[in-house]
Amino acid sequence: MNKKIGxxxxxxxxxxxxxxxxxxxxxxxxxxxxxxxxxxxxxxxxIQDASPNTNIYVGDYSDxxxxxxxxxxxxxxxxLFDKDRMSEFTVSKKMAQEIINNLNQxxxxxxxxxxxxPNEQVSKxxxxxxxxxxxxxxxxxxxxxxxAQTISKDSNCYVVGVHENSDIVIKNNNDQNLKEKVVxxxxxxxxxKGCTNFGISNVTANIIDSILNNKNxxxxxxxxxxxxxxxxxxxxxxxxxxxxxx
Length: 246
What we know:
Elements (H helix, E strand, L loop, with lengths): L3 E5 L3 H12 L5 E5 L3 H14 L4 E4 L10 E4 L16 H17 L5 E4 L4 H11 L6 E3 L3 H11 L5 E3 L8 E3 L6 H16 L4 H15 L4 E9 L4 E9 L3 E3 L2
Parallel strand pairs: 1-2, 1-4, 2-3, 4-5, 5-6
Antiparallel strand pairs: 7-8, 9-10, 10-11
Helix pairs in contact: 1-2, 1-7, 3-4, 5-6, 5-7
């Protein structure tokens, strides 16, 4: 692998992910794509100042053909708190379709990792729409798992199901209130600061690292279930190939 990463959408999450990948020295090359090129260039310069040895630059879709992994970080962080994550779908769907069209034009054949929400539904859009690759995954409940482990101080528990949804299932922990605490934590973060960017960027960087270096680490990510014909989040072994654990 070239260890080349493309990030589409360089807002709060995309910029923080780029910084995290650079500081952790996960990628050798990072391409940033966003409609606001001026702000993206500013973020690029800022990250270069923090990590001068990282080859990071503002590009376009033609620069993504040989990327090992493309990460979709587009979307809106404006959540209607009286509804669930599906309130974002109208915005995310439009952005995803534009990305799909551009990636099909360059015949992209690498890995597509979706961060946008609602995660499982947007990941399915990419899976159905991309013509030249079906290596499509979502960050899914990786962040929910990180939150559950932080709150419970239990590194063995994990979350499956649907990201940031009241129907998440927490495994290996007996705290009956933990699910409620995880959902509450997400809403507090978003309502007070308007987005989540540090936690999701860290878990996404860890997933990328596991794929690029074939570490076969265990992460909770969303992947396609052919029997149900939809994406769900599972405990998975993540390397060059991604497989459901157990």
